[in-house]
Design brief:
Elements: H1 3-8, H2 13-18, E1 25-28, E2 38-41, H3 43-56, E3 57-58, E4 63-70, E5 73-79, E6 82-84, E7 89-90
Antiparallel strand pairs: 1-2, 3-6, 4-5, 6-7
């Protein structure tokens, strides 16, 4: 299984963490650091971010993924339909 596929399986936290280096930085589309979003760095901070997301969003499915590699950066644009913990659907 490729690293990008393993990374995309957000429910497999250990699988995601196996894909990242200790200096990994993940730019999330949320947070006060707009327009850049929240940046989480390091495996344990990524683990925490995934746990926080799992408490709010369930059954995430990555679709319409477009991956671009620029230097040592990977840019991933994906649709993430899923379900909120309340059962309400997420369509984007």
């Amino acid at each position: 299984m490729s690293l990008l596929v393993r990374f995309g399986k957000a429910s497999d936290v250990d699988g995601v963490l196996a894909c990242v280096t200790p200096d990994f930085g993940w730019r999330l589309a949320k947070g006060l650091e707009a327009p850049d979003g929240l940046i989480v760095r390091g495996k344990e901070v990524v683990r925490q971010a995934l746990a926080e997301r799992a408490a709010v969003i369930q059954r995430i499915r990555f679709s319409e993924t477009e991956v671009t590699i620029v230097g040592d950066s990977i840019i991933d644009g994906s649709a993430l339909p899923g379900e909120r913990a309340t059962g309400a659907p997420i369509l984007a």
